[in-house]
Write a structure and sequence with these properties.
Oligomer: heterodimer
Largest sheet of chain B: 7 strands, mixed
Radius of gyration of chain B: 13 Å
Radius of gyration of chain A: 14 Å
Number of strands of chain B: 11
Order of helices and strands of chain A: EEEEEEEEEEE
Largest sheet of chain A: 6 strands, mixed
Distance between the termini of chain B: 36 Å
């Protein structure tokens, strides 16, 4: 059973601080890693993806991947109240029966306090 | 204006009825997916399709059916055999199954 684990939160950070969201995965053969943001009552929105070990930055967001530790994280700098949402980690695993599957964690709820 | 559309946004069903949820994409994606999301739960895969006229069961396919007659369309039917159908249903698409997925706005189904 391929698993993606996230702390459900809520994670509360003050406005302007760095929010750090973490995710671990069980399948060592996992190849691609994604972060989605989901506002309450809305559908998930892709905000970052990372394929290689190290850091990838996009604006206020940084994704970090450590395949040896089977760990991926998302940092949000200068957090804003509009960042308050649930963040879903998703991992694409090696193919089973000929096709890849995207496995989602249950999400971490982030609350940015003004 | 490229994207994924789902209709209706809200759907109410009486017990024992079948209902069909629509999903259309104009992104020229080969792969399409249906997920179900319950409160406090992650996304669970119902069915996916890698190519027209082909689809595979996901983790929770029982009580659901799909078709993929056109590349742009992947409708989901929730049958009366689905024991607990009240949920938020999300359709997604991707270039291929190894690529990032993009989601439609979702359909919220309530069984009365």
């Amino acid at each position: 059973q391929k698993e993606v684990e996230q702390n459900s939160g809520p994670l509360s950070v003050p406005e302007g601080a760095i929010a750090s969201l973490n995710c671990t995965y069980s399948d060592r053969g996992s190849q691609s890693f994604f972060w989605y943001r989901q506002y309450s009552g809305k559908s998930p929105e892709l905000i970052m993806f990372i394929y290689s070990n190290g850091d990838k930055e996009d604006g206020r967001f940084t994704a970090q991947l450590n395949k040896a530790s089977q760990y991926v994280s998302l940092l949000i700098r200068d957090s804003q109240p509009s960042d308050s949402a649930t963040y879903l980690c998703a991992v694409i695993c090696l193919p089973g029966a000929g096709s890849y599957q995207l496995t989602f964690g249950k999400g971490t709820k982030l609350s940015v306090i003004p | 204006d490229g994207g994924i559309t789902q209709s209706p946004k809200y759907l109410f069903r009486k017990e024992g009825q079948n209902v069909t949820l629509s999903c259309e994409q104009n992104l020229n994606h080969d792969a399409m997916y249906w997920y179900r999301q319950d409160p406090g739960q992650g996304l669970r895969l119902i069915y996916y399709s890698q190519i027209v006229n082909d689809f595979q069961k996901g983790d929770i396919a029982e009580g659901y059916s799909v078709s993929r007659e056109k590349k742009e369309s992947f409708p989901l039917t929730v049958t009366s055999a689905q024991k607990n159908p009240t949920a938020f249903y999300l359709c997604a698409s991707s270039l291929g199954t190894a690529n990032e997925q993009f989601f439609g706005p979702g359909t919220r189904l309530t069984v009365l």
